[in-house]
Amino acid sequence: MKNKTLSYLLIYSLLSCSFPSFAKSTSKKSASTIDLKELALPSEVEGLGKIMGSIYYSPVIKGKVLIPVHIWGEVQKPGLHFIPIGSSLVEGLSIAGGVTATAKSDNIKLTQRNGDTVETRSFDVSEGGDSEAFATELKPRDTIFAERSTFREDRAYYTSLIGVVATILSSIIIYREVRKN
Q: How far is it, in rounded angstroms, from Cα 59 to Cα 174?
């Protein structure tokens, strides 16, 4: 009897781990459950495709209006982000995880549409952001672009080129010395 009960408990625990729907949950929501209705208005997410890893929602207080902002380039989490209305450029970059080490942080571009015109401005956030980056408010459908810096790639290229030139020069010097003797 004891072995039979133990067997049933083992089978139940295996089934509940493998098939979560088998075990009935007592809580209404788990910690990882996200309700889109709490984060954005239905009209804001109605026509958006839900592709894994390309759309992010900001964990904001319920009732706060979110606006869609495109954050591209050398940031930790590029893609479409829904951020609280009234957020600054620096706050938008922070929601995207900040710029990467390979970003040109002194030349962050913000493109805003004002009616039929498109305006692109550059910002310097290399030392934490200037006052203009903190004062610039993001609007729906803005695009932030962090360009990739080629400094590290160029440095590796020139370092290897110097190594090749040094090898050739030392080979010439050794050849001349051997030829003298």
A: 66
What CATH architecture applies to the domain 39-149? Answer: Roll (3.10)
The rounded mean pLDDT for the chain is: 75
pLDDT tens digits for 78-89? 999 888 888 899
CA distances to 97, 111, 119, 134, 140 from 137, in Å: 18, 12, 14, 8, 10
Q: What is d(CA 109, CA 11) in angstroms, rounded to the nearest whole number?
A: 58
Instruction: Indicate yes or no: pTM above 0.85.
Output: no
For the record, the structure tokens of 14 come out as 């295996």
Chain centroid, CA 57 distance in Å: 12
Which residue type sits at 143?
T
Matching residue, tokens 């209006």: 65
Residue bearing tokens 């450029």: 89
